[in-house]
Amino acid sequence: MTAATAVLGYTLRVCLPARRWWTLVLPWVAAVLFGLLSFASDEPRQEAFAVTADHGLFSLLIPIGCLVVGDAVLGAEMRSGTFHFTWLSPVPIRTIVLGRWLGGWLISLVALVPAVALSAVVARSAAAIPALSLATAAGSAAYIGLFVLIGCVTRRAAVWSLAVVFLVERLLGSALSGVAQLSPMWESRAVYAGLGPDAEELLRDGVPDGWAAVVRLTIITVVVLALASWRLRHPRLAAASD
Amino acid sequence: MSTDGPVVTALSTGDPAFAAEATVEVRDLSVWFGPKVALSELSCSFGPGVTGLLGPNGAGKTTLMRAMTGLLGPKSGRVRVLGRDPRASREVQRSLALVPEDEAVPAGLTARQLVRYVADLHGVVDRTAVERCLDEVDLTDVADRKVGGFSKGMRQRVKVAAALVPDPTVLVLDEPLNGADPVQRAHLIALFRRLGAEGRTVIVSSHVLHEVERLAQRQIVLLQGRLAAAGGHRAIRDAMADRPRRMLVRTPAARQLAASLLGLEAVSGVTVDDGSIVVSSSRAGEVATALPRLARDLDTRLEEVRPLDDSLESLFRELVR
Amino acid sequence: MSGAVGAVGAVYDRGYRPYDGPRRGRGGTVAALFVASIRRALGIRRSWRQKVFPWVLLAIVTVPAVVNVGIGYVTRDTPAEGFSFITYREYVGVSSALLLFVALTAPDVVCPDRRHRVLSLIFARPLVGHDYVLAKVGAVTTIVFGFSILPQVVLFVGQMLVSDGALDYLRDNAEVLWQVPVAAGLLAVYYATIGVVVASLTSRRIVAGVALLALALVPSVVTGAVIANDADESSPVAVLDLLSLPLHLRDVVFLGHVDPDSPLGGVSAGGLMAAGMYTLVLVAAVAILLLRYREPDA
Fold it and tell me: Do C135 and C26 meet the contact criterion of CB atoms below 8 Å apart?
């Protein structure tokens, strides 16, 4: 087994709780709930679902799901004092970061993409599935990368991650499109706004949508992972905490 | 030297803080965490064989070990392992291994999975290496149990196994005997001595001084982040000339022998107690040579002559006082 | 030379001895735990890094007060157009900052005890389960209450100073002086209790924070969507919106009845329903907490 595969396998094994498999099902339940919610609106199915996707999926489900997974793949391990097993090895730092990120992304894909698809099915808006899945996949790639970065940079990862999502993205991002352009939450929403059926309501001036948003999310992912690799070259790993 | 004495380390004829053929060098290393200084301009080096790293709690041993492996960066000064900076060179990590003190292990993995993970990270091709290392630390029967459920001693051993699997040239062990029962301790000590004899650089920190004494001929002693002493522990003790050595002499004519001992210039103090004498002297060699002559002059025999503070433990207590 | 001089001696430092002095008993233990939790959450006597978030969030929440006072001052002679001054009632509210604050503070106060296995140490003291719950919920309530009250004080004092007659202003708005603390208190107890109960279920702060935010926001989104499509925009379902529940009680305190514009407005006995649900939530939360901390390592 190569080192990269080993890192990936380790990440999956450590972060996927064996006994608590039901935690992976929680997002599905929440997504179904949001899907059902779209029936509360009298508008045509596609539009109603777009609104639900905005309030429920992109604003809550995806950030929260990625937050938990993103911290677990790196930050939690650095705080618990077991990261030295990985760091004290000849594996290049970028391989470590990529492996961790990939593990996190795969887990979030498994947890979130079927969930959002289920949500669309329940809302009888199955035509939305392709755009929704793309938006979720791209958005979670950027989010996991972001939380990996936060985990390497600070011990108070919980505080900073929550602040980034709820203060910076939600509050500031809804006011300032300059912030929204760099935000995985708004950009993933914009992917759906551009590509999803009848989702024009979600479009926002100043925030690139559709495929442009996918590109932007990819750039965000690459940048945060590069920053994380740079930071991990010079760790300060004192004894365990948290 | 008896066959179960400590492993010989080649000492340079110069400063005992620096080993000949040094594999790990530390120069003017300073590490601080905010206002707390953990290491202060420490300079020393380690070479092949087993070296003991001693010091009271808080002396900076763990910080030094983490700095040597690259987990912590020097605030000033530098660390070189096999000539390279462990933080900059990923290659040198191939030959370096650390067994840290804290108990944290990734709970969800079994022992075998953990050791195999480390083996894969290091690109260990040999398929049997994992089994050998697990066997070395006696964990073969529990290899498929999750390490989260291991006792402290078992966790320590699985960390040693993980450290051994990449066949490191430099092995740094922070309190490896912690939590091990006497049988396991003996086993681990034999293992470390063998590793040292194979030419690896083994650096061990421990509080179990009588075992470190047998294990490592060379000691580095840290106190409050600074180098307090270095070299063989008997040599260190001799270097502390201002603190007299004590010897126990048992003889039937205790009082008379004590009186004649007091006549020797090298003797600084004598305590008599019911058939035994404790002699204090900073020139213990002279006293030891003079003893048989004095005993013969008094026509009495010497039943026992032994140094009272020859052990590492008493040296340590003297240093740390 | 013998006798008197040698007969007198003293030892000045015997080193470690067990403590013989007075002990404070259970009340003292609870008080100590309470104070320690507050210090930890606010970063008092710790590095500036621990202080950043609580105080930054407090600053954010105080901004509207400052803005209002400022504009009030600038337009004191000419009436302002298009700017609606915030009322005290509206200002005792739920903002993202407050929510985030609770989501960060409650786990920070509760989770580390479990994570670092300190619970059994704490319960080795003369402390019973409900003492611990009381101390922790009390600590978070106090902090959230302070957090809600301080901006109000800024607003009130600012308005007083900016108005034509400070004492007249005080007299005219005297009832605010009891309404705001009561409403803020109701809010603080509610969010603190929910925060602590969610945090007590896990040992990871991040999971607790996220769960808390989900618990607050998901019902809000759901009930919002359900109600949006009702004819008169009000429905008893609004009582299930956990996030805004204490706001109805706040309205009762300030107005004597539920705000007609709120989702509960058109519902008969809306105030009573809100109060009932509020009590139900608190009772359930406290019950869970007592169960959770019945055994030290639960």
Answer: no
Kindly list the residues from chain A whose CB atom is less than 8 angstroms away from the CB atom of residue B166: 89
Report residue C36 as tokens: 């320690």
A85 and B104 within 8 Å at the Cβ level: the answer is: no
Quote the pTM value.
0.80
Tell me whether residues B102 and A240 touch, CB distance under 8 A: yes
Contact C72, C84 (CB under 8 A): no
Give the residues across from B29 on adjacent strands: B42
CB contact under 8 A, A162 and C213: yes
* Contact state of C96 with A56 under an 8 Å Cβ cutoff: no
CA distance A190 to A214: 9
Calpha distance C61→C99 (Å, rounded): 11
Instruction: Please write the tens of the pLDDT for every residue from C69-86.
Output: 888 777 777 766 666 777
Smallest CA–CA separation between A1 and chain C, in Å?
A: 32
CB-based contact (8 Å) between A4 and chain B? no
Question: Residues A160, A64, C205, A149: is their CA dihedral positive or negative?
Answer: negative
- Locate the domains of chain A by residue range: 3-7+22-232
Domains of chain B by range and CATH?
A: 24-238 (3.40.50.300), 240-320 (3.30.70.100)
Using CA atoms, how far apart are residues C122 and C142, in angstroms rounded to an integer? Answer: 21
* CA nearest neighbour of C243 among C281, C207, C209, C206: C281
Chains that touch C (3 or more CB pairs under 8 A): A
In whole angstroms, give the CA distance from residue C37 to residue C107: 11
How many other C-beta atoms lie within 10 A of the C-beta of residue C261? Answer: 11
- Residue A213's nearest CA partner among A203, A227, A223, A198 is A203
**Element (H or E) spanning B53, and its range?**
strand B49-54
| DSSP assignment of C246-282 | HHHHHHHHHHSS--TTSTTTTSTTHHHHHHHHHHHHH
What count of Cα atoms within 13 Å lies in the side-chain half-sphere of residue A236? 10
Residue of B nearest to A242 (CA): B104
As a whole number of angstroms, the distance between CA A111 and CA A192 comes to 19
Q: Say which residues have a Cβ less than 8 Å from residue B35's Cβ, sequence separation at least 6.
A: none
- Determine how many CB atoms are found less than 10 A away from the CB of residue C296: 16
Neighbouring C-alpha atoms within 13 Å toward the C-beta of B286: 12
Q: Give domain limits for chain C.
A: 24-292
Residues of B with Cβ-Cβ distance to A87 under 8 angstroms: 70-71
Distance spanning both ends of chain C, measured CA to CA: 69
- B57-85 confidence digits (pLDDT tens): 888 899 999 999 999 889 999 999 999 99
**Residues 6+ away with beta carbon under 8 Å from B27:** B43, B77, B78, B79, B80
How confident is the model over B263-305, as pLDDT tens digits?
Answer: 888 888 899 988 889 998 888 888 888 888 988 988 888 888 8
pLDDT digits (tens, 9 = 90+) for A198-220: 777 778 877 888 898 999 999 99
Chain C residues within an 8 Å CB radius of A169: none
Residues of B in contact with A8 (CB under 8 A): none
Strand order, beta sheet including B304-307: B267-273, B276-281, B245-250, B304-307
Phi, psi (rounded to 5 degrees) for B74: -70, 135
Complex prediction ipTM: 0.88
Handedness of CA C87, C90, C96, C99 (dihedral sign): positive
Mutate to test the interface with A, among B103, B120, B160, B164 (most CBs of A within 10 A): B120
